[in-house]
């Protein structure tokens, strides 16, 4: 894809992620603010020098309310290696299809008493994973 198409796909993925985990509107992420790789300035988002999202790191005690999204939400984030959610009110289970996100190296879902269920067997497909911190 062209750089413009890639940026559009990344912004769409970030906004889809926000829609899943931020039902209260705590994150000030929007299509307007995210245009032209403006998403690299979003709270909790880190990009490489080419404007590719490499990390999503959010810690908002009780402000983020929603569920962990399916892997399809991340399809536009091909350089994403870190997902870190700390002290939020996200609920549900660990998505089994995250096992298809082979580029992930670091997943931290900490201080989430509302996340339930076992570690999905499919996460064995995360062959690049170096850090898995669930608490």
Automatic annotation (TrEMBL):
Key word Cell cycle present: no
Protein name: Leucine-rich repeat-containing N-terminal plant-type domain-containing protein
Subcellular location: Cytoplasm, Cytoskeleton, Cilium axoneme
UniProt-listed InterPro entries: At_inactive_RLKs (IPR050994), LRR_dom_sf (IPR032675), LRR_N_plant-typ (IPR013210)
Pfam families: LRRNT_2
SUPFAM superfamilies attached to this UniProt entry: L domain-like
Highest taxon, organism lineage: Eukaryota
Keyword DNA-binding in record: no
All copies of domain Leucine-rich repeat-containing N-terminal plant-type, residue ranges: 10-48
GO cellular component, one term: axoneme
Species for this entry: Monoraphidium neglectum
PANTHER family: F16P17.10 PROTEIN, OS05G0588300 PROTEIN
Keywords for the protein's UniProt record, in alphabetical order: Leucine-rich repeat
